[in-house]
Amino acid sequence: MGEGSEPAVRATRPRVAIVLDNSFAHGRGVLGGILRYVRIHEPWTLLAFLHGPQFVSQLFDLPFDAAIIGLPNENIVQLMRARRVPVINVSSARDDLEFPSVQTDNPAAGRMAAGYFIERGFRHFAYVGDPNHAFSKGRLGGFSAELERRGSSCMVYDSPVNKVASEETFVGLAGWLKALPKPVAIFASDELHGWTVVGNCVQASLHVPEVVSVLVAGDDALVCQCADVPLSAVDLAGDQVGFLAAQWLDRLLEGDAPPATPVLVPPLRIITRQSSDALAIPIPEVAAAARLIRKSACDPLNVADVLSAIPVGRRWLEREYKRLVGRTIYDDILHQRIERGKILLGESNLKLAIVAQRCGFAHAQHFGTLFRRLTGLTPAAYRRTARFGAATPE
């Protein structure tokens, strides 16, 4: 059922329980996506339980016809099993649930983080997460696999989130951070782990981002801004998760078969804040060229502009740039333009010609051809994916 299609008319409106933890932005984003679907199709009466597992006891006494759950604690799981109603799970904290799931593509978030750090010139990598959560294992898996594919590896510090703030863990993490080779890029499984990493770095006089660069999965802007150094974050597309979960639940209520495997929603983008706003490129001229390209690629900028701004030999700069950044100067300019295009396509309703112009292209056709070659999607298809998720019931 697409966003503009008409739902079937039902004799009565099903009562759907929404059981989510909205204490972080991702949960609120999922809720927003669910509400967006409901506003468009008006299929249900909602029963929302949003304050954590200790506040959903009233759910056990109320009738409901279906549910979307993002709090898969055992009491709620047992209730859903006992009620025998259609359920969509939107949490990736556990990987042992029998319910059909729509969730974040956690390995993709890890791969995105690895590519981000490699492009910034890092050669040492680490991961901090919670081994008790499936999402953390998935993010680590994607991060380490992408690093391995590119000839690198990462060190791992596993720490359950409920012990992150303890004195014992604080001392252990600080010592581990001090022992890492520098400069190092650290991917944290979530905002709280990233916050703890930055706090330990400040206490240990490890400068962020010059010595330790930190990126977290999950963009709760308030939490990220409250860290000692504002945290860069992977946007996990909570709105798309919620919209697709509601779409799938509507299909289940119509009697359709559930998805055979979890529906995975890819992360949208990386939001750079101070904690990762540095380049770990050891040659100043190459670092200056990379900064110029990231700042001005869409002005537009060409290879000749870069070479004229950096007073070194052309062949030397092109060779060292490819060695340290992993792309030629020309390819990196195009890459930065396409990355800007992704943001504009996903976050605005600008016409393709305007997007192309703002990305430094004179012609929309050239932008569209290059975009498809580098991403595998047309700009229109990417815009749909960024807003409504990569996988739909169709």
In whole angstroms, how far apart are the ends?
Answer: 7 Å
Averaging pLDDT over every residue, what do you get?
Answer: 88
Derived from helix and strand composition plus strand pairing, the structural class reads: alpha/beta
Main sheet overview: 6 strands, mixed
Please estimate the helix content.
Answer: 40-55%
**What proportion of the residues form beta strands (DSSP E)?**
5-15%
Number of strands: 12
Shape: globular
Unreliable stretches (pLDDT < 50, length at least 5) are: 390-394
* Number of helical elements: 15
- Listing every helix as H and every strand as E from the N terminus to the C terminus, the arrangement reads EHEEHEEHEHEHEHEHEHEEHHHHHHH
What is the alpha-carbon Rg in Å?
Answer: 23 Å
Largest beta sheet: strand ordering: 7-6-8-9-10-12
